[in-house]
Amino acid sequence: MKRQLCRIDESPLTEIIDFGMQPLGNGFLEPHNFPNEYFFPMEIGFSEKSMMVQLLEQPEPEKMFHDHYAFYSSTSSFMTRHFKDFASQVMDSGYLAEKAPFVVELGCNDGIMLQNFAERNIRHLGIEPSLNVAQEANKKGVATCSEFFSEDLADAIVRDHGQADAFLAANVMCHIPGIVSVVKGISRLLKPGGIVMFEDPYLGDVVSKTSYDQIYDEHVFLFSALSIRHLFEMHGMELVDLQPQKTHGGSMRYVLAHRGAREVKKPVEAILAREKEQGLDQLETFQQFRKNVERSREQLVSLLTGLKREGKKIAGYAATSKSTTILNYCGIGPDLIEYICDTTPIKQGKLSPGMHIPVVPYERFEKEPPDYAFLFAWNHAEEIMAKESGYVAAGGKWIVHVPEVKVIG
Ligand code: SAH
Ligand code: TMP
Fold it and tell me: How far, in Å, from the CA of 358 to the mean position of ligand 1?
């Protein structure tokens, strides 16, 4: 049902952008599933009080996270290194008790971060409702609990394992509509001197880069430091540090603690001030964002149709969940993009959600390189362009749509 009130504090929401009917971002499917393909009206809204951008309607979590979840974190070697560094920061910053520390991670997926704690024999628990990826984590020696996190689960963890020194999460807090219950759970699970560190795609980057493809079914929220501070303050916690990240096209790592438990670091004030300058607390900013999104769509469709008229062959590079929003919002189907290559076996041989473009193994890209490759995984551009330098050397060109629609190569 379409929400009129903010999930954080029940303040009124104003609609910002209507993306039309959208399928599940990770809903790769086979032709026999077409008649039952699920679509939902995807619109985002904003509350000037909570400063939280959010989907007005979201599919049930069980529709998105289950025993055949298509996203495996460890497909990116860059992200594997990123989470090794994240884990090292936690281990080396004096956040963990000397005796038997305990680390909890929400949405641990295939164990990409917790494997670093498992290797050092640090007590840990990953909360991961998607069973297939949780099983991958188990194979790496990561202890998991395959459930959705909530206050009740937090209490059960405290009962069975004690309170946590560190509560970690990456690219999952923004997925959880019942985030108020999660924050209450965190405040009960965390030791008095414990630390919360989580990161998610950052609203400031989405607005400045017009990266509207960060908006899809799973991302119920787009966070800013302003909205996170508001949310956690409502539950007795304090924002103590902010660490901008390059991952996922621009993310923010939020560091929080029980109120008064830790010193507030300098970046907090500076980044909050910068967000106010950018207008992340103002409705007008998002009205301008809508215009930028509409312009991006016009430019992209005109580029692709123009190339097609010239007889060029266009393929997609990486069947990301983000690409689902672009393809469906812009109405781009197999007539414009012949195939999308992807390294994830569970996606190969299927069709893209909604627009039904074939997803093929990566090798097809090498065998039949297109004239133009739409880089859907633009957030992994550095890693991909480095390994695909041969494609450009042979005359191939990249299409990117962020921060503006352009051809590279
Ligand atoms: N942390 C990983 C995975 C992000 S994908 C990374 O950054 O690469 C989001 C993950 O969170 C999925 O594996 C999904 O199954 C899980 N998830 C979704 N809702 C959750 C919830 N309520 N509690 C715990 N995990 C959840
Ligand atoms: P993400 O943008 O949500 O991280 O999804 C990444 C997707 O891109 C995932 O399906 C794997 C795919 N991928 C490739 O196919 N090749 C690559 O080189 C990289 C980095 C990702």
Answer: 26
User: Ligand 2 center to residue 116 CA distance, Å?
Assistant: 22
Side-chain-facing half-sphere of 242: CA atoms under 13 Å: 23
Find out whether the beta carbon of 379 lies less than 6 Å from any atom of ligand 2.
yes
Whole-prediction pTM value?
0.95
CA-proximal residue: ligand 1, atom 10 (nearest): 107
In angstroms, what CA-CA distances link 272 with 50, 59, 135, 240? 14, 32, 39, 12
Q: How many residues does the chain have?
A: 409
Q: Which ligand is the nearest neighbour of the Cα of 360?
A: 2
Ligand 2 binding pocket includes 380 (Cβ within 6 Å): yes
Could you tell me the distance, in angstroms and rounded to a whole number, from the CA of residue 277 to the centre of ligand 1?
32
> Residue 297 has which token pair?
């769509």
**Each residue's pLDDT tens digit, 72-119:** 899 888 899 999 999 999 999 899 999 999 999 999 999 999 999 999
Helix pair 179-189, 225-233: axis angle to 10 deg: 60
Task: Count CB neighbours of 81 within 10 A.
Answer: 11
Ligand found nearest the CA of 347: 2
- Tens digits of per-residue pLDDT, 244-276? 999 999 999 999 999 999 999 999 999 999 999
Helix axes 179-189, 151-161, angle to 10 degrees: 20
* CA 283 to chain CA mean position, Å: 23
